[in-house]
Design brief:
By secondary structure, this protein is mainly β. It has no helices and 4 strands.
Length: 51
């Protein structure tokens, strides 16, 4: 994800790990770039990083 883009994350993994290098923040203001991610895996890891 590009720097400065707010993200709503919905992540579930059955037996893997979830790792993120994204910083926590308050809710975005109106008009701010936003992405919504819904990620599901049964047996794999999820790794989130900025582009």
């Amino acid at each position: 994800m590009a720097d400065g883009t707010a993200a709503y994350l919905d992540i579930m993994t059955g037996s893997g790990e979830t790792r993120s290098s994204l910083d926590g923040a308050e809710a975005p203001v109106d008009g701010e770039p936003t992405v919504e991610l819904s990620i599901r895996t049964g047996s794999g890891d999820v790794v989130l990083e900025r582009a």
